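Sharing in case it's useful to others searching the archive later.

Someone asked me privately for the predicted structure of protein-glutamate methylesterase, so I'm posting the question and my answer publicly. Question first, with the sequence:
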Amino acid sequence: MANRDIIVIGGSTGSIEVLRTICGGLSPDLPAAILVVVHLAPESGNRLASILDAAGPLPAATARDGEPIERGRIYVAPADQHMLVLGGAIALRRGPRENLFRPAVDPLFRSAALSHGARVIGLVLSGQLNDGAAGLVSVKACGGSALVQDPAEARAPEMPRSALQAVEVDRYAPAAELAALLGAMAASAPGPARPVPQDLHLEVNIAADGELDSERLRDFAEPVPLTCPDCGGVLSQTKGSGPLRFRCQIGHAFTGQALDTRQESAVDEALRVALRIVEERVELLRRLCEKTAETGLAARYASRADEYRAHAQTIRRAIVAAVMPDAEPADL
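And my answer, the predicted structure tokens:
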């Protein structure tokens, strides 16, 4: 009898301890493979697999490109590569970043849903922003099951909370109960197969380094007056259900929350660069004023220096307001 034999798990901040708890509670004869994506910096190395390998009875290892997926094993995405499920094997690709990360959770969830449909169980753990929510929508759209860590106990509740808002999940539970839930769900028969949404093929292909052009992008997204912060190209808003999402023609993808975070960072950097330039302008004008003290130009330079000091103070207030949006005017 077929069962739910593909478990995909995604998390970020606060998820490693949860993963250790899950691995420690799994049965050694779990009739499913587990594939794990945790947001990693490119230079972070690949130590997570050894942590999970020591945590419980199932062997865990950093995934290798092209290796077949076997039940009773845990596969961990390496740093700086998306981990995808293509048929019965793992594919590692350096496709465009999604939601500021590579590896990202959504590409794994989408590819598993595309390849294995109703046999997939998707689990979203603790993390910031909302990577995983759109992928969980794809898992459910293809007949799979959705499970979420209870946001009330998550160290970073944004990811599980966003998943709960995006899709009607099968269960949400605290970390201590997730291993038993996964075991019970994996042993059960999958639901009926569902038609695969056409856009799912396209988005999995993008993560797998497939080509993307304007015409194909229009099949599932509409151009909007926003710029991709990674490449400067025009963003398009994706159609369909789930969280607000955008893609550019290169393939970079952002949820609305991820784009907001990236834009806020860019604004902060631009303000700080502007402050540096204005303060250097004040210094130059001050020196010109000193050098021309015996001429009629000194007053002009002094006046302009005062103007730029006022500009610098305005920018400082803007920076403080961006960092402390609830501050009272007197605090600025």
